[in-house]
Amino acid sequence: MVRSYVREARRRGLGRRRERIGPIVERLAAEHADAEIALRFRSDLELLVSVMLSAQTTDVNVNKVTPALFAKYRRPEDYLGVPVEELERDIYTTGFFRQKAKAIRGTMRMLIEEYDGEVPRTLAELVRLPGVARKTANVVAAELGHAQGVVVDTHVRRLSQRLGLTRQEDPVRIERDLIRVVPREDWARFPHLLIWHGRRVCDARRPLCEQCVLEDLCPSSRLRA
Ligand code: SF4
């Protein structure tokens, strides 16, 4: 199915991926000028903690917890200055609270011991932090202005497949394809554009192809099937 979208783009004469990516980014940027990360944070540390908390839950859910959390925990030391059970209670509603509390405390310890309490910039450093996987690291690096990859979440995966930008299923392989085709200066905003387009127009079950600005560039448009 995924493989067929790449072939389908050729069959419909829509052009190669590298030719379509420019107009795709341009049109999505015009359509979703407000596309940005939905998490709310005011510092690098708050960004890192928010992204760690957002695993397996919604950004809305995280945003409900973080105002009180960030008022209480301002520095990496603060997360280590309370019993772990207290931190678990404070992040309980984001789910997987035991693993998340453990990861956050481990990360805070490493920030203090190895990075002077600052959040590092590079992907290689970020993925060393306990509980920080590649996706989390990519999101943090991009928001810090140092995008070193392309974030692949469920929307990015679905849309890049539908648009025939990848024939892969695995997020790491999808990212590899996107890195090859998306200009480096767009690595940070491209996932946001796909995420917002996925939420507003290209729904998983009911894509609104008739309202889509990418319709003439999309090999899975239902209007031309
Ligand atoms: S044309 Fe349809 S399937 Fe393609 S991106 Fe737009 S809404 Fe999604």
State which percent range the strand residues make up: under 5%
End-to-end C-alpha gap: 14 Å
User: What is the number of E strands?
Assistant: 0
Number of helices: 12
Mean pLDDT, to the nearest integer, reads: 94
Radius of gyration equals 19 Å
What would you call the structural class?
mainly alpha
Q: Ions, cofactors, ligands: which are bound?
A: iron/sulfur cluster
Global outline: elongated
Low-confidence segments, given as residue ranges, are none
Tell me the series of helices and strands, N- to C-terminal: HHHHHHHHHHHH
Give a quick account of the main beta sheet: strands, pairing sense, barrel closure.
none
Summarize the amount of helix as a percent range.
Answer: 55-70%
Protein described:
The protein has twelve helices and no strands. The protein has 225 residues and is mainly alpha-helical. The mean pLDDT is 94. The protein has helices at 2-11, 17-31, 44-53, 59-72, 76-80, 84-91, 97-114, 123-126, 134-143, 154-162, 171-181, 189-200. Bound molecules: iron/sulfur cluster (SF4). Iron/sulfur cluster (SF4) binds next to loops.
